[in-house]
């Protein structure tokens, strides 16, 4: 077997991806820039902050060479705000993903701006490489795509850097996980009538998808297979109708 | 690299994501897509893979050089470099294995037309061809040769049913929109068509998602 894994990323693979999210660290030791395959790391000069990939930040943390600055959305107040949004303001949908930042003016369209994750060649960065998701300048009150994995890893390896009691953050995260898991489960009632052919899950997280993808996608495929003859009959009828319309028009002409 | 590239690099008004970062983003995107899509996707264009492999090779050589001097300062840098190297190698390996698994599963299908053959790299194509030849010879010597000649084919399409198994292109996938787009999806009871926003995560059939992914308007997640 070349690859004994089911289609779609597994939770282990998703956390591998999440380790590439950039986080902000406060170095405790000097460290020169290292030439990595993904580019040079910024030189570390205490007490200046620097953005590093999470895997490297965790390595530095383990060796007590740096402290990790938690992303602002992980603060208890921000988490409470998101829970309020998810339970009271809009109990159906997931909360919005972080808004794109637009720091550059668009030369082609005066007055408009360009998002930071897209360069002038039209190349688009997506999570885990999208800037400003888990760094110290991330927006408050929005969950990035890899929120659960990053939060869990920070709690596991850098709990003393979180700034708030780890127990409180853990409790809030658990509430959030439960609220959102219930939403994903409820979406199966939409799936039953997966007639429209499209289902939007805007704001869902990577780990939540990895956990439920097997179930959700097999329901969609199952519905399709059960309804294959219905669908074929419907398409035939629609085609005939179109054909009939066309011939009607011909007659009229 | 021609003069335009050099000019563009020094031009501060052009915002360009550095090449190393672009390569990592593209490799990651290709890996996620290959792990999620029901069929084999085209081999990445623009020598992405050759570039990444060359970079990995160079980095391994650097590690070999660095292990020579026992300076404690470069020691930590070495750990970081090696950790990153292993992460890259994992990505590349997993990507190639995901492709091999698909080629193994539907070898005859991917060898059946030029358009499908073009999706494979030279090495993958050589592998698929030789593997299929070995398998065919083995079948011939062990049992096919005792069948009547008209039953010896492995790619018959008699009675409207082809012997060649093909991947199910209507399998549901999950995509994320990279640009605001008009998305159409076929369903059992009715078809859907919606104007959707950048960042939307949508479940739909692969056959409907494919044009969006190929146009760079969406990516698989």
Automatic annotation (TrEMBL), chain A:
Residues 90-113, 230-253 are annotated as: Disordered. One of its GO terms (cellular component) is GINS complex. Residues 10-69 form the DNA replication complex GINS protein PSF2 N-terminal domain. CDD domains: GINS_A_psf2, GINS_B_Psf2. It comes from Chaetomium thermophilum (strain DSM 1495 / CBS 144.50 / IMI 039719) (Thermochaetoides thermophila). One of its GO terms (biological process) is double-strand break repair via break-induced replication. Residues 238-253 have a biased composition (Acidic residues). Belongs to the GINS2/PSF2 family. Keywords: Chromosome partition, DNA replication, Nucleus. The GINS complex plays an essential role in the initiation of DNA replication. Has a role in chromosome segregation. Component of the GINS complex. It holds the Pfam family PSF2_N. This is DNA replication complex GINS protein PSF2. Residues 73-226 form the GINS subunit domain. It is found in: Nucleus. InterPro entries: GINS_A, GINS_bundle-like_dom_sf, GINS_Psf2, PSF2_N.
From TrEMBL, chain B:
GO terms for cellular component: GINS complex. It comes from the Eukaryota. CDD domains: GINS_A_Sld5, GINS_B_Sld5. Residues 167-221 form the DNA replication complex GINS protein SLD5 C-terminal domain. Belongs to the GINS4/SLD5 family. The GINS complex plays an essential role in the initiation of DNA replication. Has a role in chromosome segregation. This is DNA replication complex GINS protein SLD5.
């Amino acid at each position: 077997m070349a690859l004994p894994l089911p289609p779609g990323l597994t939770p282990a693979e998703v956390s591998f991806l999440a380790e590439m999210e950039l986080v902000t660290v406060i170095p405790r030791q000097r460290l020169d820039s290292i030439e990595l395959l993904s580019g040079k790391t910024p030189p570390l000069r205490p007490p200046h902050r620097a953005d590093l990939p999470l895997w490297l930040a965790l390595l530095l943390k383990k060796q007590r060479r740096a402290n990790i600055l938690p992303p602002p959305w992980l603060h208890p107040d921000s988490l409470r705000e998101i829970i309020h949004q998810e339970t009271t303001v809009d109990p159906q949908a997931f909360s919005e993903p972080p808004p794109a930042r637009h720091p550059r003016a668009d030369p082609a369209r005066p007055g408009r701006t360009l998002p930071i994750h897209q360069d002038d060649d039209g190349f688009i960065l997506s999570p885990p490489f999208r800037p400003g998701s888990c760094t110290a300048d991330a927006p408050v009150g929005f969950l990035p795509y890899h929120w659960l994995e990053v939060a869990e890893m920070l709690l596991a390896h850098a709990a003393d850097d979180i700034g708030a009691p780890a127990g409180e953050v853990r409790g809030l995260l658990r509430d959030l996980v439960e609220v959102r898991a219930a939403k994903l489960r409820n979406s199966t009632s939409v799936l039953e009538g997966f007639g429209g052919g499209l289902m939007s899950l805007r704001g869902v997280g990577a780990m939540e998808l990895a956990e439920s993808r097997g179930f959700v996608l097999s329901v969609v495929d199952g519905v399709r297979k059960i309804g294959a003859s219905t669908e074929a009959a419907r398409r035939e009828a629609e085609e005939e109708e179109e054909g009939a319309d066309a011939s009607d028009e011909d007659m009229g002409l | 690299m021609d003069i335009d590239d050099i000019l563009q690099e020094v031009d501060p008004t052009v915002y360009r994501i550095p090449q190393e970062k672009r390569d990592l983003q593209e490799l990651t995107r290709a890996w996620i897509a290959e792990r999620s899509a029901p069929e084999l996707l085209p081999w990445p264009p623009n020598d992405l893979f050759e570039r990444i492999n060359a970079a990995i090779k160079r980095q391994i050589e650097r590690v070999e050089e660095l292990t020579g001097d026992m300076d404690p300062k470069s020691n930590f840098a070495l750990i970081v470099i090696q950790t990153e190297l292993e992460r890259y190698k994992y990505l590349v390996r997993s990507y190639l294995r995901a492709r091999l698994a698909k080629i193994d599963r539907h070898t005859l299908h991917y060898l059946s037309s030029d358009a499908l053959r073009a999706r494979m790299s030279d090495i993958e194509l050589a592998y698929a061809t030789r593997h299929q030849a070995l398998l065919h010879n083995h079948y011939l010597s062990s049992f096919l040769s005792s069948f009547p000649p008209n039953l010896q084919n492995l790619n018959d399409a008699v009675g409207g049913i082809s012997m060649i198994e093909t991947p199910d292109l209507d399998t549901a996938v999950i995509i994320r929109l990279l640009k605001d787009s008009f998305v159409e999806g076929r369903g059992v009871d009715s078809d859907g068509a919606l104007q959707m926003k950048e960042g939307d995560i949508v479940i739909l059939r692969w056959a409907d998602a494919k044009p969006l992914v190929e146009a760079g308007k969406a990516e698989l997640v």
